[in-house]
Amino acid sequence: MSGDVLDALAEFLLEGRTPAWLVEATGGPGRWRAADTPRLLIYAHQVRGRQRGLLDAVFPRCRDVVVTREGEAAWFALTDACFRAHPMRDFVLHANARGFPAQLRERAPAWLAELADFEWCELRADEAAEDVRDATPDAGPLRLASTVAVRRYRHDLDAWIDGGDPHADARPGEAAVVFWRSAALDACHAVARADDLAVIEHLERGAGLPARLHPARDALVVAGVILGARAVTA
Amino acid sequence: MRTLQGFGLGLRPDFADALLATERELDWVEFVPENWHGVGGRQGRTFDACRERWPMSPHSVSLSAGGDAPLDASFLAAVRAFCARTGAPWWSDHVSASRLRDTELNDLLPVPFDDASVERIALRAREARDVVGAPLALENATWYVQLPGATMDEGEFLTRVLDASGCALLLDVNNVYVNAQNHGGDPRAFLDALPFERVCQIHVAGHTLRDGVVIDTHIGPVPDAVWALYRHAIRRAGRVVPTLVEWDTEIPDLDAVLDEVDRARAHCAAALAAGVAG
Asked: Crossing angle for the helix pair B154-165 and B115-132, nearest 10 degrees?
C-alpha cells in the first residue's frame, strides 16, 4: 500500500495531476485528512519552483529573452515542458539542465536554442571538474586545455550578447565559438578564426603544426586554450 | 577522521568566498554534495579552501530513503568520495522521499507513517551507509500532508526508523516546530519522546507562514519560538550538540548569517547553564 501511495504521488507531481486525482487514486477522501488535500499543491509548487530556479540560474539570457518578449507564463510553460521531455535523472542539480537547448530547437526565435547551448557551454567551462592534465600547464606536450569546447552557430551570438537587448534578434552569421577556462579560473569564450580552428583541429588529431599556424598557436597559448607552453617556447 | 563540535553553518555558493575571508568564529561547515560534486574551477578551489580550514560534513538531499526507486549508485559513490576527501565523521540525509519513478524531484516528499515505510527506510539506510562506509544520520523532515495508511504518529515512526536502521538522528528543531504548527501537537512533548542518545547534530532555521501553512523555507533570522525549542532540546540532551544554522532564502550579508551562529552558541550556553528546566 505504501508503494501504491508513493507511485500515485509520483504521478501527481510528474504528470501534473490534480489533488483531487491523487485523493481518488489513493482510496478516496475518507483516507485523507480534509485539511491536507489543498496542501498537496505545496509540493507541486515546490517541485516546479526548484525546476524553474535551476533553468533561471543556468540560462539567464534565455529567460530574459522569453520573459521580455512573451511574459513569465511563457517561460514557466517552457521550463515545465523541458522537464517533462527531459526528466531529472541526475543527482547533480546543474546536470539536469543539459536538455534545455534541445527543448528549444523547434521554438522561435530560431537562435534561442543556440543561445541556450552557448550558456550551457559557459557553465561547463566555469564548473568542469579539475583535470590532472591541466595541473601543470607549462609542462608536457602541446595540448588543448581539458575545458575547451568548440561550438558552431548560425547566428552572431557574441555580438548579440554585447548588445544586451533582449528585444533585438541575433544576426544570422556562421561563427565558431571556443569556450574554455583560463588559468585565472575565468570562464572564457571567443569567436574562433580559421587559423584558430586549424590549430585546434591539428592538436585534436595529434598532428604537427605547419609554421603558418604558429602565430595563432602562440595566441591560443597566451589565452590558455592551449597548454604545454614551455614546449613551444623552448 | 575529523570531529564536528560546536557551531557551524551550511556552506552556500552565495557566500562561500565571503566565508573564507571572515575572521569570525565558526567551528565547522556543512555542505550539500549535490551542489559541489564534479565542480572544479573557482568554486572547486573555494570548496578545497573551506575543507582545509574547517571540519566539514555532507548533508545530502538525494538519498530518498523513503522512495521506491533503486538507490542511486553514482550518488552514493559521490558521497563516499566526499566523506573520504573531507574526513567527515558522518553524513546526513532525510527521512523522506526525493526520487520517485527514477526521477529526481529535488524536494523532500512525505512517506506514509506505516510499518512498510519503517522497513523500507531502514533497509535502504543500512545499504546506503554500508556503501558510503561512514555513519549516516537521518534528519526528521517537514511534512505538509499525512499520506494515507498512517498507523502511527511521526514521533513513533521516527524512533522506529532509527531503531531499525541503527542510524543517528540529525534533529531539525525548526522542522519539529513547523510540523507542530501545521498538524497540532506539543513540540516539546515531541522532543521529549525522542531518543536523544541518538542525536548527533541539530539544525536550526527559519520558516514562512504562507496561506495558513508554515513552510520550511530556511529564511532567517531564526525565530524566537525556534530558539526556545532549541534551548529545550539542548537541556534535554544535557550537552553541547553540534549545531548548524541553515539560511537559504533571501540570504543577507554574511555577517548577519554569522550572527545567527553566535546566537546558537549563546542559546546553547544559556540552556546548559539553566540545567534541566521545566
From this structure: 40
- According to DSSP, the residues that pair with A227 across neighbouring strands are A143
Nearest CA in chain A to B109: A43
Determine the distance in angstroms separating the CA of A233 from the nearest CA of chain B, rounded to an integer: 26
Which chain A positions have a beta carbon within 8 Å of B144's beta carbon? Answer: 36, 39, 42-43
Asked if A14 is an interface residue toward chain B (Cβ–Cβ < 8 A), one would say yes
Q: Is the ipTM of this complex over 0.85?
A: yes
Measured between beta carbons, the chain B residues lying within 8 angstroms of A130 are 40-41, 44
What's the whole-model pTM score? 0.94
Buried b / exposed e across B53-65, counting CB within 10 Å, b at 16+?
A: ebbbbbbbbbbbb
Residue A50: list chain B partners with CB under 8 A.
Answer: 106-107
What is residue B14's predicted lDDT score, i.e. its pLDDT?
A: 87
> Which residues have CB under 8 Å from B260's CB, separation 6+?
B204, B220, B221, B222, B245, B247
Q: What is the pLDDT of residue A232?
A: 60
**Edge-to-edge strand ranges of the sheet holding B168-172:** B56-58, B28-31, B7-10, B243-245, B199-204, B168-172, B136-139, B91-94
Which one of A14, A43, A130 has the shortest CB-CB distance to B101? A14
Residues of A within 8 A of B74 (CB-CB) are: 91
Does residue A83 register a pLDDT over 70?
A: yes
Question: Which among B174, B161, B141, B241 is positioned nearest to B201, based on CA atoms?
Answer: B241
Whether residue A43 lies within 8 A of chain B, CB to CB, comes out as: yes
Length of chain A: 234
Is the CB of residue B103 less than 8 Å away from at least one CB of chain A?
yes
What pLDDT does residue B277 have?
Answer: 47
Cα A17 to Cα A92, B69, B98, B277: the distances in Å are 26, 20, 18, 49
Strands (E), chain B: 7-10, 28-31, 56-58, 91-94, 97-100, 103-109, 136-139, 168-172, 199-204, 208-210, 213-215, 243-245
Shortest CB distance from A32 goes to which of B43, B78, B148?
Answer: B148
* pLDDT (tens digit per residue) in B144-186: 999 999 999 999 999 999 999 999 999 999 999 999 999 999 9
pLDDT digits (tens, 9 = 90+) for A171-227: 999 999 999 999 999 999 999 999 999 999 999 999 889 999 999 999 999 999 999
Q: CA of A149, closest CA in chain B: separation in Å?
A: 16
B40–A127 C-beta distance less than 8 A: yes
Residues of chain B with pLDDT under 70: 276-278
